[in-house]
Amino acid sequence: MNITDVRTKSPLVLTYANFVTPQFVANVVNVVGASPLMSRELAEFKELAGIANAVIINTGTLQKVEINDIIKLSQEAYQLGKPVILDPVAVSVPFRSQAITQFLSSGHVDVIRGNAAEIAWFADIDFASQGIDATGKGDVIEIAQRAAHKTGAVIALSGACDVVSDGQYTQTLDINVEQLSSIVGTGDALSSLIGAFIADGLKVPNVMNAMATFKLAGQKAATKTNRPGSFTNQLLDELFVIDNIDVQNFMEKSVLNHG
Ligand SMILES: Nc1ncnc2c1ncn2[C@@H]1O[C@H](COP(=O)(O)OP(=O)(O)O)[C@@H](O)[C@H]1O
Ligand SMILES: Cc1ncsc1CCOP(=O)(O)O
Ligand SMILES: [Mg+2]
Description:
Blueprint: H1 3-9, E1 12-16, H2 22-31, E2 35-38, H3 45-51, E3 54-58, H4 67-79, E4 84-87, H5 94-106, E5 111-115, H6 116-123, E6 129-130, E7 133-134, H7 140-151, E8 154-158, E9 161-165, E10 170-174, H8 186-197, H9 204-222, H10 228-241, H11 244-254, E11 255-257
The chain binds adenosine-5'-diphosphate, 4-methyl-5-hydroxyethylthiazole phosphate and magnesium ion.
The site of adenosine-5'-diphosphate (ADP) has 17 residues, from helix 8 and helix 9.
């Protein structure tokens, strides 16, 4: 899907959110015309997964007692044929590594969206990080492709260079917009935004369409302000008005295909 499709179809995006950024995430999904819904209640997962077009599981503030819940949520979504997107915040921190390993052992995932350090964990490649941030350097195409092969999921690696890969087909978007990394929650928001754009099918180009839309909105916002507070609101405003023709032109110019 593209931004016009999202505005027309208004897909419902169900997010098991962390407790840090849900309002911002919901607003990003809302301003592009999709329909956000957040829940952490096991008793309603089946019903909500039934009405959702995609399910996002963000483990940014996951607790031990919740691991079986997210496994159940991913299984319900899978049984209903709904794509599951995992956002494994700071996965290299030991408790989180154990939790995600347990999740992967019996849960289901179709897309993993993370920064380069988070994706490198799935690829079994060393990559420096500090908490929620990727701080190292590395071959992000290799990292994304290896993570895709190891997990069987479509990988959405975000950062200065965005990479989407299913292990065979890879696309990159190497456009630097520093301000996007200056506010907390842009990664969380991107994970749920991807959920809106894959409502008509889990394909690499659909995932890249979401990432390019978000990146272009960030680039536009950055031309109007460089202060984090006003940038946050400007980003929402740019997403609200962004035009599909602009996004398609941006993608034609900046997205590279790597087989
Ligand atoms: N240096 C950067 N230049 C351009 N875009 C960036 C940069 N860092 C992050 N982004 C963008 O910010 C968003 C969040 O990505 P990222 O910071 O990697 O996720 P997280 O917040 O989960 O660490 C993505 O759209 C990504 O493309
Ligand atoms: C600060 C923090 N702590 C646990 S989740 C979270 C938000 C992470 O947001 P993002 O990964 O989008 O920067
Ligand atoms: Mg993140």
